[in-house]
Amino acid sequence: MSQNVKKLTGLVAATFTPLTAEGEINLSVIAPYVNYLIEKQNVKSVFVNGTTGEGCSLTVDERKQLAAAWCQHGKGKLEQVIVHVGCMSIKDSQELARHAASIGADGISVISPSYFKPINADALRLFIKEVSASAPDLPMYYYHLPGMTGVALEAADVLNGIEREIPSFQGVKYSGTDLRDLGQCVCYSQSRNWSVLYGVDEQLLGALVLGVHGAVGSTYNYLGHIVNQMLSAFNGGDHTQTRALQFKFMEVITFARTLGFDVSVNKQVMSEVSGLPMGPPRLPLLPCPVSKAQAIAQKIHNFSQGH
Q1: Catalytic residue among 143, 174, 188, 198
Q2: Known catalytic residue: 143?
């Protein structure tokens, strides 16, 4: 399958889910959202219904509607639309996988179940295999996020031999901080032409040195243009400029973290920076005070302007 698949590389925006003031999904924002990512951030691939998108707080039907809207409005504009289909229920994940195939998604991704947790890598591979079988022609990416799932398995163990069970497997979104495990994933993926994408935005440079092929993150929604400059500097061998941009990026995130940089704050920051109405988060997340988001947005503006 890898011969026919366009490799997922570069920056991928983990998209927010726009909600109305009443807490319903707001599909009218998706079309301008696509244009904003392309025109203002030079980000042309998206990861829909993941953690940033509050995917696990949405119903199966809502996730279908959002995925369909991203595929519809992204057609001919976005390079890749990857749909996260992971759920606590394997049946729901399979249904979302089938739906992703039917709407023309470019790939699917699955996070580990986190209530009843897989006891070992074999169990998790079997879960991913059964979901993938519902959309066998779509590239499958494992979404590794131990900080949220509480599943402490090493991603390299999950990848080991997975191609024998899942022919459509194409890589991993690695959102952990263990660079040794990440390096093992990159090493294993090299001969298989898989994509390893890093998901901890503020320490991307460490992952680039290890050889990741791109990154999936929430901040690329509004800082993608800056991080693209960092990628260009890195690829051009200008390590001084790369480090300078990474350090400035770290400074922004560190400031945001002092204010409590969770998904709800991040969502409000996106509204402030982009001008797109993302709306509130869904309970149990609480809305972010606008003043907090504005302070972070000002920091981002200063960073973007080179101050």
Answers
A1: 143
A2: yes
d(CA 228, CA 11): 7
Task: Provide the 3-class DSSP secondary structure of residue 198.
Answer: strand
CB 276 within 8 A of CB 229: no
Alpha helices by DSSP H, listed for 42-88, are 60-74
Q: Is the separation of the CB atoms in 111 and 158 below 8 Å?
A: no
pLDDT value, residue 7? 96
Mean of the pLDDT values across residues 145-150? 96
- Which candidate in 44, 64, 173, 267 is catalytic? 173
**Closest CA relative to residue 14, chosen from 64, 66, 99, 82:** 82
Dihedral sign computed on CA atoms, order 86, 91, 96, 98: positive
Q: Using one digit for the tens of pLDDT, what is the confidence trace for 108-142? A: 999 999 999 999 999 999 999 999 999 999 999 99
- The token pair at 232 is 């260009």
Query: 10-14 and 214-217: which strand pairing?
Result: parallel
- Catalytic residue list contains 173: yes
Phi, psi of 30, deg, nearest 5: -65, -45
Question: What's at 83, amino acid-wise?
Answer: V
Average pLDDT, the chain: 96
Burial label, 153 (beta-carbon count in 10 A; 0-12, 13-18, 19+)? buried
123 in Cβ contact with 162 (< 8 Å):
no
**215-271, pLDDT tens digit by residue?**
999 999 999 999 999 999 999 999 999 999 999 999 999 999 999 999 999 999 999
Task: Quote the tokens at residue 20.
Answer: 């109305």
